[in-house]
Amino acid sequence: MRVITAVLFMAHAAVRITNDTIPRFAEFMEGQGFPHGAVWVWAITLYELTAGTLLILNMGVRWAASGLAVIAAVGILLIHWKNGWFVGEHGVGGSEYSIALLVMLLVVAAHDARRRLAGSMSAQHPADTAPPAFVRLTGNE
Question: How far is residue 38's CA from residue 32's CA, in Å, rounded to a whole number?
């Protein structure tokens, strides 16, 4: 899920660059009250590429996912919410896809936090960790 989520955000950023839609997105941002729209859009685009790369490399996962979650949440509020729920078939530009991305990011961040916590706890207190499940089931302790 971590890698797929990263690829989805990176694809958004790459298409924004290759299709030259940054100026249009910058106009939209300025229309929403963000000064220097092009700066905001480039910051978003570069963050999506950088954070996506970090997610793929499994580095700084919680920080990368958290920043992308902010981007997704703001996108929902500024763009998608007013278009309803559905993205396609039953609607246009709704929030369902962005909410799915947001949930994916939260799961990725939570999994990373849990993994790091478990790793730090077992490193500090190896005697407190339970034996592997197959050992408990066979009674060979």
Answer: 13
Sequence length of the chain is 141
Residues sharing a CB contact under 8 Å with residue 84, sequence separation 6 or more, in sequence order = 91, 94, 95
Q: Tell me which residue of 110, 118, 12 sits closest to 61, measured CA to CA.
A: 110
> In this structure, what token pair is assigned to residue 103?
């949930």
Distance of CA 65 to the CA centre of its chain: 4
Q: pLDDT tens track of the chain, all 141 residues? A: 999 999 999 999 999 999 999 999 999 999 999 999 999 999 999 999 999 999 999 999 999 999 999 999 999 999 898 888 888 777 778 889 999 999 999 999 999 888 877 777 766 555 555 555 554 555 555
Around 135, how many Cα atoms within 13 Å sit in the side-chain half-sphere? Answer: 6
Q: How far apart are CA 126 and CA 131, in angstroms?
A: 10
Residue 68: both structure tokens together: 């992308």
Q: Which amino acid is at 3?
A: V
Integer Cα distance of 105 and 79 in angstroms: 19
pTM of the model: 0.78
